[in-house]
UniProtKB/TrEMBL annotation:
Keyword Oxidoreductase recorded: yes
EC supergroup of this enzyme: oxidoreductase
Matching SUPFAM superfamilies: Cysteine-rich domain (SSF57889), Thioredoxin-like (SSF52833)
Reactions catalysed according to its record: [protein]-dithiol + NADP(+) = [protein]-disulfide + NADPH + H(+); [protein]-dithiol + NAD(+) = [protein]-disulfide + NADH + H(+)
Xref: InterPro entries: C1-like_sf, DC1, Nucleoredoxin-like, Thioredoxin-like_fold, Thioredoxin-like_sf, Thioredoxin_CS, Thioredoxin_domain, TryX_NRX_thioredoxin_dom
MF annotations from Gene Ontology: thioredoxin-disulfide reductase (NADPH) activity
Family designation: Belongs to the nucleoredoxin family.
Native organism: Gossypium arboreum
Keyword annotations from UniProtKB, A to Z: NAD, Oxidoreductase, Repeat
Stretches assigned to the Thioredoxin domain: 1-174, 325-487
EC number: 1.8.1.8
Protein name: protein-disulfide reductase
Amino acid sequence: MAEAANNVVETINGDCHDFKSLLSSLDRDFLVRNNGDQVKIDSLKGKKLGLYISASWCGPCRRFTPNLIEVYTELSTKGDFEVIFVSADEDEESFNGYFSKMPWLAIPFSDSEARKRLDEPFSVMGIPHLVLLDENGKVLTEEGVEIIREYGEEGYPFTPEKIQELKDLEEKAKKEQSIKTILVSRSRDFVVTSDGSKVPVSELEGKTVGIYFSASSFKPSADFTQKLAEVYSKLKENGEKFEVVMISLDDDEESFRQSFGAPWLALPLKDKSCEKLARYFELSTLPTVVIIGPDGKTLHPNAADAIDEHGIVAYPFTPEKFAELKEIEKASEAAQTLESVLVSGGLDFVLGKDGAKVKVADLVGKTILLYFSAHWCPPCRAFTPSLVEVYKKIKEKDDAFEVIFISSDRDRASFDEYYSGMPWLALPFNDARKSSLSRKFKVQGIPMLIALGPTGKTITKEARSLVMAHGADAYPFTEERLKEIEAQIEEMAKGWPEKLKDERHEEHELVLTRRSNYVCDACKENGQVWSFYCEECDFDLHPKCALEKETKADAKEGWVCDGEVCTRAS
């Protein structure tokens, strides 16, 4: 045990870790299995190691561990790869419960000093963290989690050369992409139907294919599935050579079945290619429908919005078709009116505060803010009081202004409670127009504030930022008004020095800086627009606080100077 006596991790030849000093301690030369068996550290000689820092309380860890177990099981037949669990759990009960599911070795939970010591030689900034070492103890990579996720057992033996080889193959596959290179794996050359029947991937050659990434537990995906099912069915009825292959990101069989909105095809549930394709197509949002043309090349990275908005008209999803759709959208925006936005079938009203129906026609000619928000959303609840204050100030000046609340609340009670604190109009709870409005204005997150002018045309989708920056002064949110505000801001600072020194911050000069919101470090009051600011120290002074000493020094007795103007004191 003398080799581990110094409680430091030794390296051999400067870049190779000695397994014994890495994993043992003064009174321990073994690791443990989840059944309590002890395994001598010396038995790891000649093996490649994965040091897996993880914890039961960590959601990403719990999601990654099954992937690592699968890879470990595949590689176990080689006999030269081992994983060592290094627990970040806070109690032994949690360690035992988590470790009971793992087929590999672990540093005993009781040896907290050895577990903590492994943070020193490796850059453990977060978990899960997987360090891969070769048989000599040389670090192959500290990006083991990403490599396992991306390449699985195909990444073995995890050397830089092997990973580069796989990346080169991916680049080649992209250049030579076909429906087969996308959907066929080493163990599978088929996709499945909703009843589990196998369909050879070869039958998709020559067709336009939508690769549909979906998760039925995610409401936007569930809602879109219905729309895609309608489009799919119509195209099939028309005899078009179009197919959908679903890539389900669901975890259970029931959710997987629910994702079949129509008799389309799918990769099997939890197929290894699902995550691989998500990375291949750089999946960033759901729902996503990647369009693959008849030649196997990617026609469009995500046609979901086009399908949602235009339906069957978006087919065949070619660049020419998208250019045509762009012109349609431009024409639609040019012809947009308040009624075309808010009236749908018999739904031609919004709700007043007393519950009475207010006809959309009665709002024509007003500037309207569409407020997408929800009670469950903390940023929404934080922004709403500011918007209420702005609303009241604008209404005092101009009654031709209104806000319409469009709720994303999940139940009527939440809607009622939230709306009770708002002085404006609203779409009824669970109104069918909410979905179409969200699609039209591409609402990806809330709170969102859309400004419509008196003609009903969209002025800006960034009205929330304008309200936060300028309050009621932003009204009526037009480009012309913003130019006026900008001119006023520049005029405000005329005559002020670009830099100054102040005894309250002697370390650095303060620079005249545009700042949206801050707290003055002198008077402790909120400030906006201009500050004399030290970026290095995050120090702010109101212009009035920064300039008051200068103006007093400049003024004669009985006079007050402000910028370039001196006036007689009253």
